[in-house]
Amino acid sequence: MMDWTDRHCRSLHRFISRHTWLYTEMVTTGALLHGDVPRHLAFTPEEAPVALQLGGSEPDDLARCAKLGEQWGYDEINLNCGCPSERVQRGAFGACLMNEPKLVADCVKAMRDVTSVPVTVKHRIGVDAVEDYAFVRDFVGTIAEAGCEVFIVHARNAILKGLSPKENREIPPLKYDYAYQLKRDFPQLEIIINGGIKTLDEVQTHLEHVDGVMLGREAYHNPYVLADVDARFYGESGPALTRDEVEAKLIEYCASEIARGTFLGSITRHALGLYRGEAGARGWRRVLSDSRQLAKADLAIFEEARSHLRAPVDA
User: Fold this and answer.
1) Does residue 311 register a pLDDT over 80?
2) Active site includes 83?
3) Catalytic: which of 9, 81, 83, 254?
4) Per-residue pLDDT reduced to its tens digit, 183-193
């Protein structure tokens, strides 16, 4: 979710669900070791719990970055072994690492040696034409021996050549049974499933077989899907915030961020799906995507956007 799940996105999601575990966009070791650390790692206490997802393949570099993540207050350090983009391939990390389980084990051990927070791994079930379940089973087994206890399984292969990142999320078939089998083979591990999951009913079904479910793009494009998570899966007794109440909190957040010099559009771009499925949602999205309006930093833009929600137009 590079360039997507930044702190503004996570703040919106936290308004909707108090208990959902949130993840950063993937941050490369180079960006932290040679770039602007506060820009990449700063977040508000209200966002917690938050996991820092790292991209890299050098154990020493990952250890230094994991230590930074712990110092900045993250609750988990996650190593990305699933991203198939060409940019990641050029850096020899992401999904490429599934072909080098011993290196991943060394990376995990290096990070665990310098941090007290959990170190987890997100991965695919195979690479390119490798379809055999034994491949992902052996990968998980090797990493588990290094002390990793939590695996987030994107239940698709990663095709490193010939498919774009978008196509990699859609074309390789989903094989949820591989994740289910991992849980049966490694009952002591926490197995979290990811990939193509869109509804809380689907989440419920998966939880009959694994320990957790990760929502990615569905939660981004349709953030209000998280509204019933706390009551349904965490035993929260109070009512969920309505969309209007979430919007009110978002406006307050925007006001504080504008005062810090944040461009309003950097925040509203994450909220375009808040009213997804509601009458007038298209007009809401159009107004909050208008760069000329957003440049004025005038929160009255929300009132204009809401005016479309009152009219029975196409959502």
Assistant:
1) no
2) yes
3) 83
4) 999 999 999 99
